[in-house]
Amino acid sequence: MAKQQPTTVEVKILDKEYLVACPDEARDALLQSARHLDSKMREIRASGKVFGTERIAVMAALNITHDLLEQDTMSGAASAILEAMDNKLDDALGESSGQ
User: Fold this and answer.
1) 60 in a domain, yes or no?
2) What is the pLDDT of residue 69?
3) What is the reported pLDDT for 2?
4) Is position 34 within any domain?
5) At what angle do helices 76-97 and 53-71 cross, to 10 degrees?
6) Do the domain assignments include residue 2?
7) What is the DSSP string of 43-76?
8) Does the predicted model carry a pTM greater than 0.90?
9) What is the DSSP string of 73-98?
10) In terms of residue numbers, what domain contains 56?
């Protein structure tokens, strides 16, 4: 069986577009995750207590991670997703700091 190449999916978070490679079967989950992250980041931005996209992203990541840990249902899959999100965040923050 041939290994499928990941497809590129465009997600929009805080009105900024990101291209993310993912397998076809993970596309819907990726889009749902991006919507959830966008929602959390908008809530934080609307609070007026945190400024700057980078800080808002970090606070959203911390809040989402806290929620997952509070559920005490951290599975291997959830851990892998969080690690992948952390890597993507590191990549995005690395790119934005050079601008």
Assistant:
1) yes
2) 80
3) 53
4) yes
5) 170
6) no
7) HHHHHTS--SHHHHHHHHHHHHHHHHHHHT---H
8) no
9) ---HHHHHHHHHHHHHHHHHHHHHHT
10) 7-97
